[in-house]
Amino acid sequence: MPHPPSADLRKTSIDYTDSDTVFEGYAVAPAHASAPLPCIVLAHDWSGLTAPTMRLAERYAGLGYVCVALDAYGKGVRGDPVGDNALLMDPLMRDRSLLRRRLLAGFKAASAFPGVDPARMAVVGYCFGGLCALDLARAAPVNLRAAVSFHGVLQPPAALAPGRIGASVLLLHGWEDHVAPPPDVLAVGRELTEAGADWQLHAYGHAQHAFTFEGAAFPERGIVYDRRADERSWAAMRAHLAEAFRP
């Protein structure tokens, strides 16, 4: 869908660490905010913090939020937005405890970023980032009000005990998404219910994986852009965050 021009924005890199690993995120904020703003923590897809995710962070900031795009792989480690990035993603899929630590480190850095209201935090992610959004909600950091997963992987971390989820969770799911088949959708619904979460599922008929990625046209891989699902999911996300950030 066409993206309207963003307002005047302040853009900067933000370094943070987990153990000995340095990460480089990307922070974007309205340039002339007069008070602390809610913060969107943006989790990237499997390609890492590449140009498409940075543009997406600017789009979120254009809505009037601070957006801090996280880096799950490490400073200078970036993939190919249109290539196969399994070698980057798979180690974190196998070690969800490590992924959780990295997400919490990024969340802490975002909460402390100048101009952020640390009491009004949300996480949004796409594909692998959708899994990251859910994993951060599962980690239940204080002040995480909302988590939004766009066409995300839904499977929970097997090695981590389930707990309570305080964030309001929104799942934006393409019904024909091979990455999240119906058994996974039913399972995450049970998981969120048992965790006491306030949750919603929006399923878009005929939409496949990565339905928000303009230019995606790989039907043989089940990856196809869907304009209607893109527009509807963006509207649903905006309404969800507005409700979650309400005083």
What does this 3D model show about the protein?
The chain has 247 residues and is of the alpha/beta class. Helix content is 32%, strand content 27%. The strands form 2 sheets. It has an 8-stranded mixed β-sheet, with helices on both faces. Helix 5 links the parallel strand 7 and strand 8 (199-204). Helix 3 packs across helix 4. The longest helix has 18 residues, at 227-244. The two termini are 31 Å apart. The model is unreliable at 1-5 (pLDDT under 50).
Distance N terminus to C terminus? 31 Å
Average pLDDT level:
95
The shape, in one word, is: globular
Q: In angstroms, what is the radius of gyration? A: 17 Å
The total of beta strands comes to 10
Instruction: Give the strand order of the largest sheet, numbering strands 1, 2, ... along the chain.
Output: 1-2-4-3-5-6-7-8
Q: Give the class from helix and strand content and strand pairing.
A: alpha/beta
Strand-residue proportion = 25-35%
> How many helix segments?
6
Low-pLDDT runs of 5+ residues are 1-5
Q: Can you give the helix content as a percent range?
A: 25-40%
Q: Secondary-structure element sequence?
A: EEEHEHHEHEEHEEEH
Query: How is the biggest beta sheet arranged?
Result: 8 strands, mixed
Task: Write a concise keyword list for the protein shown above.
247 residues, alpha/beta, 8-stranded mixed β-sheet, two-stranded antiparallel ribbon, globular
